[in-house]
Known about the structure:
A: TIM Barrel, Arc Repressor Mutant, subunit A, nine-stranded mixed sheet, four-stranded antiparallel sheet, 15 helices, 16 strands, globular, disordered N terminus, B: alpha+beta, Rossmann fold, Elongation Factor Tu (Ef-tu), domain 3, Alpha-Beta Plaits, 5 domains, six-stranded mixed sheet, 14 helices, 34 strands, 26% helix, binds guanosine-5'-triphosphate, binds iron/sulfur cluster, binds magnesium ion
Amino acid sequence: MHGIPHKIIHPAATGKPLFLPKVGLGVYIHIPFCKRACHYCDFYFSTQLRYKKELVQALAREARLRQEEWAGAEIHSLYFGGGTPSLLEPSELADLLDLFHRLANPVPEVEITLEVNPEDVNSKNLATWKKLGINRLSLGLQSLQTRILQWMNRGHSGPQGLEALKKAGEAGFDNINVDIIFAIPGLELSCILNDLREILKFQPTHISCYELTCEPRTAYAHEVKTGKIFPVEEAASGEQFLTLSEILESAGYNHYEISNYARPGFEAIHNRRYWEGLPVLGLGPSAVSFDGRMRTQNVAHNIRYMTSLQKGVRLCETEILTPSALLNEYLLTRLRLQEGLSFTALRQRFGPDAEQRIRSRAAKWSPQVAEWRSDGFRLTRQGRLLADHLAADLFEI
Amino acid sequence: MDHIRNFCIIAHIDHGKSTLADRLLQVTKTVTEREMQDQVLDDMDLERERGITIKSKAIQMEYTYKGQTYILNLIDTPGHVDFSYEVSRSIAACEGALLLVDATQGIQAQTISNLYLALEHDLEIIPVLNKMDLPSAMPEEVKDQIVDLIGCPRSSIIPASGKTGQGVEDILAAIIERIPPPQGDPDAPLQALVFDSVYNSFRGIIAYYRILNGRLRKGDKVLFMSTGKDYVADEVGTLKLQLQPKDEVSAGDVGYIVSGIKNAREVRVGDTITHAEKPCDAPIKGFENVKPMVFAGIYPVDTDDFEELRASLEKLQLNDASLTFEPETSAALGFGFRCGFLGMLHMEIVQERLEREFNMNVITTVPNVSYIAYTRKGEKITVNTPSDMPDPTQLDHIEEPFIKAQIITKPEYIGPIMSLCMDKRGIIKNQSYLTTDRVELIFEMPLAEIVFDFYDKLKSISRGYASFDYHIIDYRESDLVKLDILLNGDQVDALSALIHRSRAYHFGRRMCEKLKELLPRQQFQIAIQAAIGSKVIARETLSALRKDVTAKCYGGDISRKRKLLERQKEGKKRMRQIGTVEVPQQAFLAVLKLNQ
Ligand SMILES: Nc1nc2c(ncn2[C@@H]2O[C@H](COP(=O)(O)OP(=O)(O)OP(=O)(O)O)[C@@H](O)[C@H]2O)c(=O)[nH]1
Ligand code: SF4
Ligand SMILES: [Mg+2]
């Protein structure tokens, strides 16, 4: 989904998928274009919009090329991410959806999400999206503070963001996610809470709250490195995380994953697949696919992606997960979820020895970080701040 | 034998021994122009990097003088105090010594101590006034000093320069004219003194010796007298820049032997080699055992490497006879060795050689000197490590080693040096002007006070114009305490230190501060305490880790993050668990970094 790998890229091996029919499949389609680069972003995208049409054709090629991988699987989710999928022309989006319906076998309640930027939200687009069968919008608000949005180099203002949220609701979208960012230098917690109050007035079904992180090779990272800006201190950022969690939970949202909140029944079906280790087929440059054992990532380069597909070849990097890697990923992702880790499930998947070892490692933790139940434990709010550290503590190497 | 001369070059550190040796090797064409480089005999990487000689090095030269060809065996020696044992062994293989004095600096502390070593062995001393090319040379003044010190005729001092080559021919002539040829009977039973050895992974152990009597031929069956073991001399020869095999090495000469010995314990410096069939009557009096001054634990980073560490130390000891070690255990670090060193530089060099030459990863613990504890029952216990300390209830008193320190400096630095020495619990014993511009100060002070940073401090307060030499005089009663470090209440034995009570508070506080920097934050807060017995004298608190979590964890993020965390965890394997606290290796070196 993001990052530009600098490793050897080779044509994908074709083979029978390992997907288990009962867990179904999620499909991710990466639209690698943005009008401008946000200063904190390290997703793969290009601002060269002139290739857009050609790229959509390449996406279709990839979908057909990998038909075998999805044939027969029940599709539970389709997610258009980016980049900026809302830059797609209605016809382009229609073509992709059309192809999807022809090739795939979606369940009736399939979740179809479109990531949209507020500046692309207008009545006409909303109507088109609705008509094409998009049933979930993910709106990149990030903040309602125009000065912050400008600093981030976003393409919309605060009021524009709020307006987009309002319009989307009016257009009949009843499952809307709002992205917001915290731990922004110079943005007070009180200010974030004000924004949140404004947003909550529209009752979005889902809110993703991401901590601003400093990713290498971004404009933000450069500012930090050259001392132009100081990242928010750990303690303050932790404080913001805890406060957001308290407030959103009291407003009726489940803090079901470290960075994600949902009203009951509205957890993101697609995103959950990543944390549950379920198969996802990723199409488009830099997209990642996972079949439960093997992970591949498409080449993160639009031109190379398109030219190779013209020759009927998909360029990607492949990683076959070892049993310990599978276990470690299981631990890493499970601890992020509200339900935490179940010893029974752990034993069933990885055997009683692994379960015992992990149990005894976790038993040393302070009660402040984990909450024990009869069949496992989950991280407390405090513990979630240490999720990576704790997962690593359980890792097997 | 009349055409052999054996000599060494001795001097204070940096007075130009190795550089002058370069010129001698050049003039005698012992090394080719292509092989030549500055201080060519300093062939260890560590020597080249630090610009000092660590090991004595023997090399044979040939020189024609007045129509006669002579064999000259030269031994270049180190100047640093920590390596004076190298000098004393070299002296045993020689009849004469070049005593170098830097013409810009004059006589310094090790000039004197090394001179005395040579005189004890009745060596013929050839005084050389070196670095004459420097504009700041003070030949007349320094000549006065030399005449005063040795009582030699002024005219016997040779002005020279290792840079320009001035005086080199005069030195060679003096070596031949003034140094007596070796005594000894080539036809008597073989008697050869081993003065050094080295481990070579292809050839086994190579021993260097000086033959006093008899001859050693290739293929001879030889006996190493102290172990009583015999071997066949697979190869013998003399020491050029490379080893030079010969059929025979005979009385008066310096050479090497390869005899397939693989076990480091079978070769001892100071041993006598003789023939198995026709042995000599008695071994040569070997070398006095050196007494290590500083002790520290050396532990393998990977606890499985204990035996390998032992083998490496044994091999290193072949080439460094002043190193001692014996096994010890630590609750924190597992199995390791308590090693004895001649000083801090020696300790540092040993640690580096273990890492470079033997690929060992080691942790070194807080160094200390050797104390003597007396119990109430009247027992006398040598304390080389804090855990040797008897229980306070059993302890009657404890004594620490005192040294006599000789410092030679310029008058303007007397003040600062005095206060430095007083601060180090020193007692001034004497102050005398060697010349109007040079003062000798004699102090008595505890050895423990000079072990750590004394030398560096001395150099910096005197801008390099102070030289320093010392030797142990006696043990004196002292108010020493064992300072323990506790992490969340658990004592870390490898961080305990023996220290004078007056220093304990400051030391304990600095240790706690340093550990706070070096320990990684963990889920809980960590109390870092310094304590004497049950009394806590310093404390720092390392706050708990607040936050370690990735915001976004989708598709490719998952494997990236997993790999990162796996790598971190791999690194943690090298940490030691003390109670609930994980301690990285660097923390055990905290004490050495207190001043940084
Ligand atoms: N100008 C000048 N510099 C010299 C002369 N001899 C040595 N030096 C310099 O003095 C420094 C020390 O020289 P070394 O030959 O390494 O001294 P050393 O006595 O062997 O030193 P240690 O073995 O460590 O005791 C080097 O920087 C040399 O270049 C000389 O005759 N003239
Ligand atoms: S619009 Fe989204 S993908 Fe594009 S630069 Fe901004 S944050 Fe990144
Ligand atoms: Mg030297």
